[in-house]
């Protein structure tokens, strides 16, 4: 018997409520499984949803959200997207053909310690909550902690900075857990990460200002995805490399993924443009998720059809 | 619980590399407690920064003395936070 869910995708939720909803999705759909890929610094489980309709070690797509904990619309969008994928399989041709060929892994709260901290202590918290020996300041920017130009331009060596890169690459267990999982799986074809603020769709590189080998394909795919996003509510996303679009930033996840052979590596910066900062009104969660989904789907279809 | 009463978010628009450098200098002044939502990088890109109440006047004075243009994106961050909290409470009740 199917259970009914009272989960409201159009509002913000605590970590406990999110984890409960992950359980619900996994129980509702036979091809959805909740898996644990590690534990945070404060020993919270890192839960991902695995969407798989069969096969063994199929080519896969990675999608994460909330690595910067205050970017609440990303965790909320990831849940809406998870439900969309699960409920549309079997009725939507695009999702059905995607999941008949590939697996999808979705990590909706990549930084659970930070997320809980935004709910309980400081709504503007961005980093992890790891303690830094010798410093009164807490936390590392987990999107400066990947082994991709680690410690280079666009990351701070001050533990008190919002963009502190950490003592060493992968020092943050939240980052290392994803790295270990992706390496041990060995067959990821796309790495997509959701951030929020200023409406951008970016591909490598961020740690250097040179174009990636697949520049032409990534640029064209990025533009196609931005066009899909715009088709729903007219939201304009700027497309380009991290360095050209926003600023040089080292130690980022999509640079690591690309340098480790995952060609289709993109970072989304969802709404908003600044008027609400990271406090995007809940009424905009579903529109943000809907338009983001169109962009993600465009990329996923390309990945599905262009095996490499 | 940390509150953000009087914190403002400014959008700063730079005209040239010199102004970008001035903002990068500002970024390095840790005692101001600035939280850059978009860091200073190139003249064409805006810079968004959250400024604690105690630093608002000094940052504005600095920008005005250097002739750097800015506008206020969020007048009082705590007002927006309170609204969010109220929305969440109403949703939970529903």
Please summarize what this structure is:
The complex is a heterodimer of chains A (308) and B (94). Chain A is α/β, with parallel strands linked by helices.
Overview of this protein structure:
The complex is a heterodimer of chains A (308) and B (94). Chain A has helices at 15-28, 72-88, 93-101, 112-120, 173-185, 215-233, 242-245, 253-259, 285-305; strands at 32-39, 45-51, 60-65, 103-107, 188-196, 200-203, 238-241, 264-270. The longest helix of chain A is centred in the C-terminal third of the chain and has 21 residues, at 285-305. In chain A, strand 6, helix 6 (215-233) and strand 7 form a beta-alpha-beta unit. Chain A is built from nine helices and eight strands. The termini of chain A are far apart. Chain A has an eight-stranded mixed sheet, with helices on both faces. Helices cover 37% and strands 16% of the residues of chain A. Chain B has 94 residues and is of the alpha+beta class. The longest helix of chain B has 17 residues, at 77-93. The A-B interface holds A 8, 10-12, 120-124, 154, 158, 160, 162-163, 197-198, 246-248, 274-279, 281-282 and B 1-2, 4, 9, 11, 30, 35-39, 41-42, 45-46, 48, 50, 73-74, 77, 80-81, 83-84, 87-88, 91-92, 94.
